[in-house]
Design goal:
By secondary structure, the chain is α+β, with helices and mostly antiparallel strands. Helix content is about 15%, strand content about 35%. The chain contains 1 helix and 5 strands. About 0% of the residues are buried. The protein has a domain at about 25-74. The longest helix has 11 residues, at about 10-20. The two termini are about 25 Å apart. Strands 2-3-4 form a 3-stranded antiparallel β-sheet, with no helix packed on it.
Length: about 70
């Protein structure tokens, strides 16, 4: 496994699923971070901040990271 940024778009994942198995059913669920993560000296490592009363993932590239969970039923 190659370390580094390993987040892919929902569109890309959906395309791969449909290419492999067009009849597969799937659903996306919003992920809510359940606990805080402290910032470290490695700014490309994700940490959390409080935004709108939620624990939100951010990184040193000034990105807010919205994660989703993919549920696949086949």
């Amino acid at each position: 496994m190659i370390p580094g940024w390993n987040v892919h778009s929902c569109y890309t994942i959906e395309k791969i699923i449909k290419d492999i198995s067009p009849e597969t059913k799937f659903r996306w669920h919003d992920f809510q971070m359940p606990f805080p993560i402290k910032q470290t000296s490695d700014l490309m490592r994700t940490w959390t901040v409080k935004m709108d009363n939620n624990i939100t993932l951010v990184n040193g590239a000034c990105q807010i990271v919205h994660m989703k969970i993919l549920e696949i039923n086949y």
